[in-house]
Amino acid sequence: MRTPTAATPLLRVLRIAACTGIAILSLRCSTFKQDHTAVNAVPADTSFADAIRGLDTAMTEAMSRFQLRAAAVAVVNTDGVLYAKTWGQRTVNGGAVDDRTHFRLGSISKTLTAIGIMRLVEQKKLALDDAITDHLPGMVLRDTSGKPVRITVRALLSHHAGVTSDLYDGLVGCSETRSESMSSISRRPLCFQPGTAMKYSNIGYMILGLLIERISGRTFEDYMRDEVLRPIGMGRASYRFSDDIASNSVMPWLDDGTPIPQYAIRDVPAGNCSATLSDLAAYLSWLVAAGERPGPIRASSLSETMREQYPDTADHVYINARLGLSWFLDYYRFPPDFDYGQVSHAGALNGFENEIVFNPEEGIGIVVLTAENSAELDKGEVAKMWVVGNTFGKFLTAQKKRNTLRAATKRERVRTHRPFNVVYRPPAEGMYALFGIAMNVRRTGMLHSVQLAGYELSLAAGSNGIFAPRYHFLCIPLDPAPFIGADGLTMGFTEEHGAEHLAVHWRFGTSTFMNMAERVKPYAIPDAWKKRIGEWQLIRGERIDNFMCVYLPRTKRFVCELRNGFLLIRPEPSRLEFILTPENDSRAVIAGTGERLLIEDGIADFMGLQFRLPGR
């Protein structure tokens, strides 16, 4: 599934740095380099020849550089498939990947679930601004005071409902029905009032799946197969991870040959779809045609999914990426001609990392499917962004020239994006939180530095208020960007929505990205929290051992400590630290996320994982 961490390579960097140290990070070469042209590829338009050669070269390098087990890539425009190719093998024992091999899509599944909802909207069986309780009376969600809150379908689709990201206990191997597994949600307070901020949520899409089942009278899986997947032309795709799907799926494996476990997950509408490259090429063909080809919904409904829904909110995460109805808008930026206009979504699940990016105005898109050698999704995360960042800009340029020569009509109705205007200010010392991760900005003399994950990056001043971070190894200043496969990494201080931020920029090829770390103001720590200093042990949630977890990754314990006036928690064995901001004696917010740590009867509950402080 896609989580807040999965869309940010910086967090992957922090995780890698916390385990190994940036200065000794290296990527070994994979032996699986064979490639296969997909059987459904058509001869490429010669105007795209340079872009295609560049993509071939990039993928050959990516397979070895990022140790990918398998990959599949398609580029599609309004004329058809420009490029479709596969690499690697399905299992440790062999089996070539082709355009009919299944990859697990992770959170790209959400974009299809959103189309399923829009089909019901077209049929007037619900409206985007309906409250979910209009159709699911038992799904009453409350704020921190216990007051019921009205949450709309639109807010859930665009991740502005304030619902927690996920519940990890029971995420895999769960025998309960979706309705039963959702019963605990009503007992958890919302992260914030709906419509006031963005909070990526798998649980929100679980609720949407329940909504589809209640209104359609069918199982979610059957409804999506008949009403969405087949009408698009995704005949092999399925939200059921069945034995038949598994037998024809890539099965990533570790370096010692151990297969990475693959599960049917509880959050089916959020991330359980599996599909082939042929399926994704069909999906892209429909998307780049802006719904003008036959499909499950009309062009106007598809356009609405690509329109920014809450333009004036102060986002806790992805402050630079606007949200449509499931789609991320302008996450990929290719200046100067395509600084905005891209629509995208990523997907991650236990060894799989995928990305779909398209420009609906120009009518062209790319999908990158990868399988790597780790369940932690470090290399695949960087690999797919590196491939898109280094190649898709060339396709966009060629497509724009083609459209100009043909005097093609631009699809202005889907161009709802706008440029970013960031004004940088002098550095401000203090604690910042990026997805909760503590970043301490210090000043020594005339120089500033950033401390994170036990490491210190000095900030070398550049032009226009931008700083270049440097990691010092044996007194040698090193640029950390190459160690994560990036072509550039810079930082700057700014103010957004009345709050101070540390903006972190990175560049892959010609694409630029940005995330914001919010400054955390000093606060008073209640005595009750001071008594909770110590090492907390996991007592419930072991079933997620092989799953990537947000904020507390693969941890059996966390250490709570007080330092420099802030309450910090550190998941062992990681060196990452997270800032806790107490709201009262029994509840604290992980700064920069909206997620809460709840204390009851000496047990700490975080997103369904439960911990106890020994001896208390």
The total beta strand count reads 31
Kindly provide the radius of gyration, computed on alpha-carbon positions and rounded to a whole number of angstroms.
Answer: 23 Å
Number of helices: 13
User: What is the structural class?
Assistant: alpha+beta
Determine the strand fraction and express it as a percent band: 25-35%
List the keywords.
616 residues, eight-stranded antiparallel β-barrel
What does this structure look like?
It is a single chain. The protein is of the alpha+beta class. 23% of the residues lie in helices and 28% in strands. Strand 16 and strand 17 form a beta hairpin. Helix 3 packs parallel to helix 6 and helix 3 crosses helix 7. The longest helix has 27 residues. The chain starts with 8 loop residues before the first helix and ends with a strand. The N terminus is likely disordered.
In short:
The protein is built from 13 helices and 31 strands.
What secondary-structure arrangement, pairings included, does this model have?
Layout: H1 9-20, E1 35-37, H2 49-65, E2 70-77, E3 80-91, E4 94-96, E5 103-104, H3 108-122, E6 141-142, E7 148-149, H4 153-157, H5 178-181, H6 202-216, H7 220-232, H8 243-247, H9 268-271, E8 274-275, H10 277-288, H11 299-305, E9 322-323, E10 328-329, E11 343-349, E12 352-359, E13 364-371, H12 379-405, E14 424-425, E15 430-434, E16 437-444, E17 447-452, E18 455-461, E19 466-473, E20 476-478, E21 488-496, E22 499-508, E23 511-520, H13 527-530, E24 534-540, E25 557-563, E26 566-572, E27 578-584, E28 587-590, E29 596-600, E30 603-606, E31 609-612
Antiparallel strand pairs: 1-3, 2-3, 2-13, 3-4, 5-8, 6-7, 9-10, 10-11, 11-12, 12-13, 14-21, 15-16, 15-23, 16-17, 17-18, 18-19, 19-20, 19-21, 21-22, 22-23, 24-25, 24-31, 25-26, 26-27, 27-28, 28-29, 29-30, 30-31
